[in-house]
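Sequence in, structure out.
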Amino acid sequence: MLTITETAAEAIRTLAADAGLPEGGGLRIATAEEGDEGLELVLARTPDEDDIVLKGAGVAVFLEAAVAQMLEAMVLDVHPGSEGDGGDELRFALGPQDQPG
């Protein structure tokens, strides 16, 4: 299942609080709208009916069912934006989980 770093969890907590989400709200990861490629990350008050809900470290992440399979062995992390972004933005990133051995 998708792993969430402490840095990403802290960013999600901060974004959810700043957006005034109710308890139980969180970050939703879904396929991008039709015509777009990739994934869409949005703050959501509640999960969609078929979402897989991950909870821990004081955050909730809602995964669209198809996305949950794609992200099975991935890690969600966050990095500061580049200077061209103004430096204040955060960039969520997905990467492979470390494999033992």
